[in-house]
Design a protein that fits this description.
Helices cover 71% and strands 0% of the residues. It has 112 residues and is mainly alpha-helical. It is globular.
Length: 112
């Protein structure tokens, strides 16, 4: 008996519900403007949260920032544990990067 039977490497990877919902916006070109607005709003809110938490040392902003970081780590760790890098971790990382870039730009311009 061969205990190490060859695995089928071409088996399709199951998409999670989150991946399917997010990919719907990417696959349909008619929804790209909606996707751009959602990303810009999330980046602006994330940037304001970062600025309030880091520069102003606002307790509520720090608490919200800690909660968002914990939720982000949970979302990314879930896919890392499954040994795949799906859409959800990519979105989380992209939104944090966009938020940091917007916050840096706002701070550099002296708006905040």
């Amino acid at each position: 008996m061969n205990d190490k039977a060859p695995r089928d490497e071409t088996a399709p990877v199951q998409e999670s519900a989150v991946d399917a919902a997010l990919l719907h916006y990417v696959r349909d070109p008619a929804l790209w403007p909606v996707l751009m607005v959602l990303v810009l709003v999330a980046a602006t809110l994330g940037a304001s949260l970062l600025l309030f938490a880091v520069l102003e040392r606002n307790l509520f902003a720090l608490t919200a920032l800690v909660l968002l970081v914990l939720m982000s780590v949970h979302a990314v760790a879930d896919d890392v544990r499954k040994r795949r890098f799906g859409v959800a971790p990519r979105v989380v990382i992209a939104l944090w990067a966009a938020s940091a870039a917007v916050a840096a730009g706002i701070n550099a311009l002296g708006v905040f």
